[in-house]
């Protein structure tokens, strides 16, 4: 599947989702159509695999980061936010692609992506907020706040072009501070 994701991303990023054919994906993967159809049955399957891949690499990135070593829930949250912003910057192309092309997923795949996002991404932030909430009572619905955080963290990938003259370090610090202040959390 990873080989298919790599090949599909290559052609999707170049041509876009809609103009890409399953034949393009097969060629990009160095596979025959028959080989590709053994693993996937449609272009939607390839797009779904790209979504799955993006979430897997983000989760792996976080697992291998040092946020767990931070002292206290607020500092863990701040470190995880910073690490995620770094990941989003490093993977800007796939983030932009996933956000812009999800609308083309069929209903079954879209529902699976939504559930995956709810469990993995929003679920991760919900768990982090729950830990912070034990120490400092947060005002607001944790599910809503977790979803809002997940969205704010893609800001640099989706709208970063609007920022001129700021370094990535400054952008990350500003977003982390904005989120923490919005939650009423001090480091």
Summarize the structure.
This protein is an all-alpha fold. It has helices at 2-15, 22-29, 33-39, 43-63, 73-90, 92-101, 107-135, 142-152, 155-159, 168-183. The longest helix is centred in the middle third of the chain and has 29 residues, at 107-135.
What does this structure look like?
By secondary structure, the protein is mostly helical. It contains ten helices and no strands. The chain has helices spanning 2-15, 22-29, 33-39, 43-63, 73-90, 92-101, 107-135, 142-152, 155-159, 168-183. Helix 5 (73-90) runs antiparallel to helix 7 (107-135). The longest helix has 29 residues, at 107-135. The chain is elongated and about 55 Å long.
Top keywords for this entry?
74% helix; elongated; 187 residues; mainly alpha
SS class: mainly alpha
Provide the succession of SSEs. HHHHHHHHHH
Number of helices: 10
Radius of gyration: 18 Å
Shape: elongated
State the share of residues found in helices, binned by percent. over 70%
What is the assembly state of the chains in this entry?
single chain
The first-to-last residue Cα distance is: 41 Å
DSSP strand count: 0
Mean pLDDT: 92
What fraction of the residues are assigned to beta strands by DSSP? under 5%
Low-pLDDT runs: none
Let me know the largest β-sheet: none
Give the helices and strands, then pairings.
Layout lengths: L1 H14 L6 H8 L3 H7 L3 H21 L9 H18 L1 H10 L5 H29 L6 H11 L2 H5 L8 H16 L4
Helix pairs in contact: 1-2, 1-4, 4-6, 4-7, 5-7, 5-10, 7-8
